């Protein structure tokens, strides 16, 4: 291994450590607790080292969002593939549950993805691949149930917006959690053509 390869590997390792530490701190104490000073202390590197990887907190949030999008896409695909032979309704229900579970289990990551400014472009040509792939993971299943005269991507956006609303309102205590399952069933039955 060359010196250059070793340095690149060490740099990638430091970057993963910064992102993982930011996620951990945000999940424990919220995003307000994530500062470059606190991150530097936790990972035992100087602030200039952090700035050599990220220009600031905004870029760190963006990195967490991209990592979270990839994880969410994987969770959605795993849920729908587990119900692949159960029909389109079962796949849509599994997708909705997986989405809501991801949001509930990873609140700081979910905030980085959809609530905070991570400097990422959504629904544009320069949208990063992990964000496009997360949308594709939704579209793969929801496109099947959009209906004959409904554009699959628009239907997916509407269904996604509904899931996001449910996730956000439930987490904020605006919706009683005991009715979560009924909301998923109603959403699938009223919006999807299954």
Properties at a glance:
single chain, 194 residues, mainly alpha, 9 helices, elongated
Structure notes:
With 194 residues, this protein is mostly helical. It contains 9 helices and no strands. Helix 1 (3-29) packs across helix 2 (36-43). The model has no long low-confidence stretch (mean pLDDT 95).
**What percent of the residues sit in helical stretches (DSSP H or I)?**
over 70%
What kind of assembly state do the chains in view correspond to?
single chain
β-strand amount: under 5%
The class by helix and strand makeup works out as mainly alpha
Shape: elongated
Parts with pLDDT < 50 across at least 5 consecutive residues: none
**DSSP summary, beta strand count:** 0
* Average pLDDT rating: 95
Termini Cα gap: 55 Å
Task: Write down the Rg.
Answer: 19 Å
Largest sheet: none
Number of discrete helical segments: 9
Order of helices and strands: HHHHHHHHH
